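About this split. The held-out portion is used to measure sequence recovery: a designer receives only the C-alpha cells and must propose an amino acid at every position. Recovery is the fraction of positions where the proposal matches the reference. Here is one held-out target exactly as it appears in the evaluation file.
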C-alpha cells in the first residue's frame, strides 16, 4: 500500500503532507492554549455578570460545525472582508483617497491555522475549566490558611489541575489534526506554489484523503488514513498516560 503511494508521489511529497499537517495543527493548538488558559482562568476564578452565558457559549463552541467556521474565516479573509480587503478612506464624490491593510491569507497555511484556532479553543477552554472546577476546595483552603494571596491560590489550583490541562491540550490537538471541512474551505488542497515542486503547501492528511478518494485513488487514501490514524492513536495514548498519572 505504502509502496504504491511512494511510487506515485515520492517520499518527499508524502513527508511534506505530514509536515504541513503537524505544522498547522501545532501552531493552532499553541495559540488556542494561550487563549484558552486565559479564558478558563477568568471563568474559573472570577464571578461576574454574564459568566454563565460565556460558559454556555464556550460549551456550545465545542460542537461548532467546521464548515460554518470555514465559511466565516473565508468571509473574514477574503478580498471583500475586513482583513483581506483592508480599509479605505475617501470622500463623497471624490472616491478612495487611501487604502491601507489587506493581506492575502486565503489558501495559505495561516488561514488554516485561524480556522483551527476557532475550533480548538472551545475544546481546550471547556476541558481546562472542568479541571479547574474539579479541584477539591481543600486545596484552596490550604493555600489561604498558609497566608497565600489570591494569585497564590490560583497558582496552587492550576498546579493541581495540570494533568487536566494537558488532557485539554491533547483534546484540542485531536480536534485540530482531524479537521477537514474548514481547512478545505480556507486552505484548499494546493501543492507547492513553486512550479514543478512535488511538495504540499496547504494539503493536509485529511484534505489529501478527501482529494484522493474523490479521484478514485482509494489505496492512496487508505495509506494516508493509516498515517493519520497513527498520529491520532499516539495522541490518545499520550492522553491516557497523562490521565493515569493524574489519578495516581
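Reference sequence for scoring:
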Amino acid at each position: 500500500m505504502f509502496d504504491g503511494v511512494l511510487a506515485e508521489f515520492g517520499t518527499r511529497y508524502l513527508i511534506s503532507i505530514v509536515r504541513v499537517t503537524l505544522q498547522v495543527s501545532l501552531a493552532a493548538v499553541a495559540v488556542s492554549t494561550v487563549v484558552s488558559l486565559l479564558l478558563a482562568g477568568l471563568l474559573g476564578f472570577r464571578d461576574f455578570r454574564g459568566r454563565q452565558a460565556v460558559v454556555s457559549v464556550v460549551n456550545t463552541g465545542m460542537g461548532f460545525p467546521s464548515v460554518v467556521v470555514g465559511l466565516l474565516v473565508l468571509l473574514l479573509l477574503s478580498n471583500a472582508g475586513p482583513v483581506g480587503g483592508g480599509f479605505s478612506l475617501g470622500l463623497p464624490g471624490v472616491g478612495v483617497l487611501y487604502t491601507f491593510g489587506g493581506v492575502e491569507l486565503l489558501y495559505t497555511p495561516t488561514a488554516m491555522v485561524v480556522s483551527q484556532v476557532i475550533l480548538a479553543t472551545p475544546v481546550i477552554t471547556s476541558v481546562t475549566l472542568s479541571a479547574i472546577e474539579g479541584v477539591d476546595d481543600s486545596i484552596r483552603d490550604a493555600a489561604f490558611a498558609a497566608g497565600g494571596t489570591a494569585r497564590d491560590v490560583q497558582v496552587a489550583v492550576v498546579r493541581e489541575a495540570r494533568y487536566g490541562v494537558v488532557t485539554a491540550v491533547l483534546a484540542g490537538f485531536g480536534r485540530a489534526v482531524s479537521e477537514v471541512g474548514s481547512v478545505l474551505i480556507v486552505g484548499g488542497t494546493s501543492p507547492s506554489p513553486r512550479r514543478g515542486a512535488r511538495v504540499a503547501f496547504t494539503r493536509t492528511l485529511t484534505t489529501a484523503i478527501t482529494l484522493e478518494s474523490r479521484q478514485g485513488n482509494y489505496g492512496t487514501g487508505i495509506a494516508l488514513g493509516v498515517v493519520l490514524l497513527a498520529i491520532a492513536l499516539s495522541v490518545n495514548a499520550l492522553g491516557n498516560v497523562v490521565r493515569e498519572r493524574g489519578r495516581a
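Annotator remark: Residues 94-101 have pLDDT under 50 and may be disordered.
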